[in-house]
Design brief:
Strand content: 15-25%
Order of helices and strands: HHEEHEHEEEEHEHHHHHHH
Low-confidence stretches: none
Distance between the termini: 47 Å
CATH architecture of the largest domain: Up-down Bundle
Shape: globular
Number of strands: 8
Strand order of the largest sheet: 3-8-4-5-6-7
């Protein structure tokens, strides 16, 4: 049982699954367009919430929300399910495959044996598409990989029902109706304005562009507050959240730039093309920040200080606030 499903590698799992599933159902949407319409780019630093003893820093909206916002703005109808038992979850998956429906689902990265061991850690919000079955093996389109993979039933169950935060509960989803008359331009504007409002105008210091400056103020004191070795753990966690979990840091800035380029062409708005170049430069700053943090964590930073890192973050924060405020004020 194998569905004719085109696998395309992408930069991020949720946006990649959206793009691949939509293309299968006749809606040719790029991954950057999925990100922009779904308002995936965000920032928050919440020191009072900790995972593995370290504060949460997120560079994107909540897992699953990109798909929800994309569906709402395009009129795509989705069926989403969670299950109380692995048996029910696998039976429902098999039924969908029998109907010729590729299925998106949440999994734990740790229990996906086709991933290199170095990439497998406890993260329960990785999106994949299952598009076929051969005996007890399932055919997988994992959007972050170059080619499709195979996973056996036992390990797929473990990946779908991993414990932790969030509990996966066998969650799966698939489109039930994709309209033929979607006004993509309207969806683009809604997604763009929502992201600009959240990043540029939220007054609380832990959300949006202002949260970048808030994090900078804390980074400046990491070594004094926690000591050298503990400070490196805090710093390394920021980089891990930026560059590994969710691809939401510099990666989302580059992807958002590509979205703005597409939006500029579709809307006939040259200002958005200039904005795409601007956010790409900010993405470069995020990458440089991550690189310097890595040097600090490995004791290769020469004369670099935590205040220097904080200054880099403060500059990024100021630029992002101005960038998104300017888009928020634009008339479409």
């Amino acid at each position: 049982m194998k569905i004719d499903f085109e696998h395309r590698q992408s930069a991020h799992c949720e946006t990649g699954v959206i793009s691949n599933l939509m293309r299968h159902h006749g809606l040719d949407i790029s991954e950057p367009m999925a990100l922009g319409i779904g308002s995936g780019l965000f920032f928050s630093h919440m020191p009072f919430i900790k995972v593995n003893g370290l504060p949460v820093t997120t560079y994107r909206i909540m897992p699953g929300d990109i798909f929800k916002k994309f569906s709402k703005r395009t009129g795509v109808e989705m069926k989403r399910q969670a299950f109380s038992s692995p048996e029910k979850a696998m039976n429902e998956l098999d039924a969908c495959l029998e109907q010729g429906l590729p299925v998106g689902m949440l999994t734990s990265v740790f229990y996906l044996p086709y991933l290199p061991r170095a990439f497998r850690f406890h993260f329960n919000a990785h999106n994949i598409v299952v598009y076929g079955k051969e005996g007890d093996d399932y055919l997988v389109s994992d959007p972050i990989l170059e080619k499709p993979e195979v996973i056996d039933r036992r390990m797929l169950i473990r990946a779908r029902f991993a414990k932790g935060m969030p509990n996966t509960n066998g969650r799966m989803y698939y489109p039930t109706h994709v309209p033929k008359d979607i006004d993509i331009n309207v969806a683009i504007i809604k997604g763009l304005k929502y992201t600009a409002k959240d990043m540029g105008t939220i007054p609380l210091p832990i959300f949006g562009g202002r949260a970048i400056g808030f994090l900078a103020s804390r980074v400046a004191n990491y070594d004094k507050k926690y000591g050298k070795e503990e400070a490196k753990k805090y710093l390394g966690n920021i980089v891990r959240m930026q560059e590994e979990i969710g691809t939401g840091g510099a990666g989302f800035r580059f992807m958002f730039g590509a979205f703005l380029q597409e939006a500029s062409a579709r809307l006939g708005n040259p200002v958005l093309h200039k904005k795409s170049l601007e956010i790409t430069k900010i993405g470069d700053q995020w990458r440089n920040f991550a690189y310097d943090c890595g040097r600090m964590c490995k004791d290769r930073a020469d004369n670099l200080t935590y205040q220097d890192l904080a200054d880099q973050l403060s500059d990024i924060g100021r630029k992002e606030i101005l960038f998104f405020q300017s888009i928020h004020k634009m008339k479409f």
